[in-house]
Every structure is written in structure tokens, then in C-alpha cells.
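Section 3.1: Structural characterization of target chains.
Under the original work plan, the team committed to producing a structural model for every single-chain target entering the pipeline before any wet-lab resources were allocated. The record below documents one such target. The sequence was received from the expression subgroup and is listed exactly as submitted; it comprises 360 residues.
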Amino acid sequence: MKRKKQNKRKIIFLLLILLAIIFLIILYMRKEKNMPDNYSNEAKEKLKKENIDIKEYNQTLEAFLKSDDFKKENIEAYMQINFQNEEDFTAKTNALLEKNYSPDEINDIFTYLSKANIQKLLEMDYVNLQDYLKISNLDVSKIDAYKEYEQKNNTTINDAVTKVNLHLDEPFYENVETIEKPDDITVLVNKFHALDASYVPTDLTNVGTYSLQMRKEAAEELEQLIAKAALDNRELIPYSTYRSYDYQKRLYEGYLEIDPKETVDTYSARPGHSEHQTGLACDIRSSILNDRLTDSDYEWMLQNSYEFGFIVRYPKGKSEVTGYMEEPWHIRYIGKEHAKKVHDLDITYDEYYDLYIANH
């Protein structure tokens, strides 16, 4: 009788153990069932290991689970951040979270900022980007300078960004950069970007019957521009095109014998800083004047030169940007597409270059 009771207890005990096992299996299976099928096996294993119960699939979380960058404390943030198919996405995201950027800010950063700007952010302390994210020519490393320029000059954020990018918060001829691609049709030559003294264009050719040279593409379009002017009963005559570095040096030094340096710098480029050295610039005059255009011919040039890829490089009222007094007679070839945009936007080439060419 006693033995029967003992056997009965053992059976009950074994049944309880079996029920417990079945219960645990059911719980496990329910957890497996609740886990979205989209996750890879690798991601599922990490979710189990970290004892994380996820009800929905998230591509960003998947990326982190499959990387070495997963941090359990960041899981809520991961779920709010849009996945980006780019190198080091998980590492960059963690770095931004560590700098106290919110998930919404991180989404904006990946949406609006270039890879170069994101890399700069990773090397900086937290920056409030709210007012700057959608500015196409933004350089995040200059935000403090933008703010200072904006306040000092009582201007807009967009204008401050462009002006600081053009170094207009600094004295002219400081922090000069040597141009790396002088043969580019869109090359920017100004008081902060200089050509090497040895640079000479390789495709210089004569401009029509004039004893002048320009780069071939520019020379051909200049001839077409002059022909179009003739059809409109205007006689335009080019008189200064390509100049070598040494020629510009002699010209500039000659002016210094007449005027003080600060005055010369308003009307003559220092050697290496002249567009004429590119072979893409031309000084052009009205036939009735020695070295400039009549007001009527200047207006014609403003409204027609872009059709041939030329712009008036130093227009009236833009000296604070270009660094030179107005030169209605100085035209510059940049190609038809860019010239039309400069014309339509009614801005200087310096501004256009920063907005639409630099870093694009």
C-alpha cells in the first residue's frame, strides 16, 4: 500500500515536470510566433540572446542586429531611425546618438547633408542644425562663422552661408588656394583662388582675324557673339583676351607706379588671380569707345551673351562680392548651360559657383 502511494507521487511529480516543460515549450513557440519572419536568422538569434520581444520588423534594427554596433540601450532610437544603405551606417548612427542627436535629427542629417558634411559632424560636438539643414551649400564646420556674419551684417542665413563660403568675412587675398583643375571650363579664379604661375592653356587659338587668343571653345563662341551683335547693328571689338602670368605681373606692377596698392586692387588682378590667364575671358569694347562698352551695348551684352556661354563677370553693384569695380566690358566663358543659369538668377559667378558647382 505504501509503495503504491510512493509510485503515485512519482507519477504525479513526473506529470508536473512534463506539464512545466510543455508550458515552457508553448511560451517559447508563442514567442517565436510573435517574432516577425522578416528578420534574418542571425538577427533572430541576437534578439533571443538579448531577450528582446519585438512585434514588428524594422530594417534599421535588422542592420544593427547583424553588426557589431548593436547597443541594447539604443533600441528605441534604432526603431525611429530610417535605414540608410550606405557604408558605416550603424557606426555613424551610434556616433550621432552619442553626441545627443535625436532620431528625428539623425533622419534629417542623412536626408539633407552630404557625406562630407556628415563626416565633419562626427568630428564635432553637437550642433543645432535646425536652420541650416536645407541649405545646399552648407559647410557644417562653418556654422559659427555663418551666425557671426549673419548678425554682424544683418542678413539672411542663406546669404551668410554663401558669403562666408566665398571668404567674404576675411580680407581679400588671405587664405589663397591654388587651383587644382585650371583646365575646367567652370574654373573659379578670384582673390581667393589662384592659378599656378606656370599654367598655360593647351588649346589656345586665334579669335577670328584678331591678333588675340582664347581657348578654342570660347574663341568659337565669341565669334558667334560678335556676329549676332552685328546682326543687331552693334559693332563689338575684342581687345584683350589670354594673358600669361608674366604679362599680368608686368601689368599689375605698372599700375602700382601710378596708384597705391589698395586702389590698384580694385581694378586690376594680381598675377595668378586674373581670369585672362585661363584663356576664357575677354575684354570687349564698343567700336566708338577705346576700352569699354556704351550703356546700350552693355545692356545688350547682359541680355544676349549667355546664349553663347558668356557672362558679364564683374557687373554693376557687385563689387563687395567680386572685389573689383564694375567692368561691363569684361566677359567670361563658362558654357551655355551655366551662363543661362547665372543670367536667370541674376547673381555673380562667385555666388553661382558656390551654390551650384563647388562640392556638387
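The mean pLDDT is 92.
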